[in-house]
Automatic annotation (TrEMBL):
InterPro entries: AceGlu_kinase-like_sf, ACT-like_dom_sf, ACT_Aspartokinase, ACT_dom, AKii-LysC-BS, Asp/Glu/Uridylate_kinase, Asp_kin_monofn, Asp_kinase. This is Aspartokinase. Keywords: Amino-acid biosynthesis, ATP-binding, Diaminopimelate biosynthesis, Kinase, Lysine biosynthesis, Nucleotide-binding, Transferase. GO terms for cellular component: cytosol. Pathway: Amino-acid biosynthesis; L-lysine biosynthesis via DAP pathway; (S)-tetrahydrodipicolinate from L-aspartate: step 1/4; Amino-acid biosynthesis; L-threonine biosynthesis; L-threonine from L-aspartate: step 1/5; Amino-acid biosynthesis; L-methionine biosynthesis via de novo pathway; L-homoserine from L-aspartate: step 1/3. ATP binds at residues 7-10, 174-175, 185, 210-211. NCBIfam families: asp_kin_monofn (TIGR00656), asp_kinases (TIGR00657), PRK06635.1-1 (NF005153), PRK06635.1-2 (NF005154), PRK06635.1-4 (NF005155). It catalyses: L-aspartate + ATP = 4-phospho-L-aspartate + ADP. Its EC number is 2.7.2.4. It comes from Actinotalea ferrariae CF5-4. Pfam families: AA_kinase (PF00696), ACT_9 (PF22468).
Amino acid sequence: MGLIVQKYGGSSVADAASIKRVAKRIAEAKRAGDDVVVVVSAMGDTTDELIELANQITPLPPSREMDILLTAGERISMSLLAMAIANLGVEAQSFTGQQAGVLTDDVHGRARIIDVRASRIRQALDGGAVAIVAGFQGVNEQTNDVTTLGRGGSDTTAVALAAALRADVCEIYTDVDGVFSADPRIVPSARKLDRITYEEMLDMAASGAKVLMLRCVEYARRNQVPIHVRSSFSGHVGTLVTDEVVEGESMEQPIISGVAHDRSEAKVTVVGVPDVPGTAAQIFEVVAAADVNIDMIVQNVSAAKTGLTDISFTLPAADGQKATAALAVAQDRIGFESVQYDDTIGKLSLIGAGMKSHPGVSAKLFGALRDAGINIEMISTSEIRVSVITRSDQLDDAVRAVHTAFGLDSSEGEAVVYGGTGR
């Protein structure tokens, strides 16, 4: 007998028929002898609909009330799923994040888990029941206020519970058959990966791959929780995310694991920056004070005649207005000429733990982009990743060209996205 934590995304429980299909899979796992904990997201587009409804009431809804509102979606899913499982003759009990013992900090809308006290979940399992937990939510122990974990919060809930319960595996069910070498909606010939390391998956998630969220993978790596990414629409074996080496398996990793892309970033260029010590620090201190995360940074060589330079950086497009407004306030103090904002960019990232020991990877990447007529605006590198910024409308072509150039195309037919979202 083992302990499995399963997580089902919104597309997997989008309607009554989908909930019944998921319930059947859970019941089969329980009857096979495993203890089962299930984390569930809100049905379909419920969360987006609740956000839209709140915005119809007020353009600035209080963050505390938004958290209470948004947790309703997962509560609906968990209770309906528990009913569906019970209808199959298997006992099931549903729990909110608070009831499940998910404790967070007090940051509404993007709270972080600080502890999981899963005694009630353990009691349910000891009593022979399947435990159904509402994902994406927790509670602050000091204020007793409900909190939400932000984007990908249900994935993080599942991994946190798996770590607290010492589960054998955390199964993340999506509407694709696993982690692919590229987004199968962009590259139908993308190849499913059988295994991938935490490090590679972290870089793929950070580079725009939507199948797993960054915080979920970070939590899994920190607690050594193996993740099995699978589809709730098929019975295929998925992708195992782990650093464990199977006996007899080759230690040699493929050079490239995949190509990720991201359209959610924008580029800010600070023009005419005095090229003197401390100026760049001032710029990024202003951005940091506005609570904006920065991804890639490029500084041009200063012009000899003027002593001025340009500094460009990328950031989430959703934070673009905050960053530019903060810089505008500090313009006279820092002494730069102007700020330019561009939200029509796309980021492509080539990822693979094997690339650090193989020369020529960058040359092949840039050659593929050149042959496809793709212009590069920024470049960033690490030991296992090379990222470039290009025009958003050229991004799909760039992904396909690079994917083919590195021999990642599958010979087993086109990948299937069952629910249409890739989540």
